[in-house]
Amino acid sequence: MLPRFTARGVRLAGVSVDAPETSRAMHHRLSLGFPLLSDPEMKMIKAYGVVQEGRDLAVPALFLLDSKHRIVWSDVADDYSDRPGAGEVLARVPGG
Question: How far, in Å, CA of 59 to CA of 68, rounded?
């Protein structure tokens, strides 16, 4: 799946509220083909407005940013299992 994104010039990254050590372990355990960034202070998660109310967790969300770091598409889910498929995300890539 990752080659489909890189062929379109898309770079992927994940963001977690977990500590860096936990994120590194999860990245290794899941063999992710993209970086998993750690945001334990939730600065980025708050900036994007995806904090779960009453919890120190992020709402599952996907954001497509253009080359100027502007959001061109987003999907914010109610549940971690409610995610768009790769085809749906690729269809939203500008110029696609």
Answer: 24
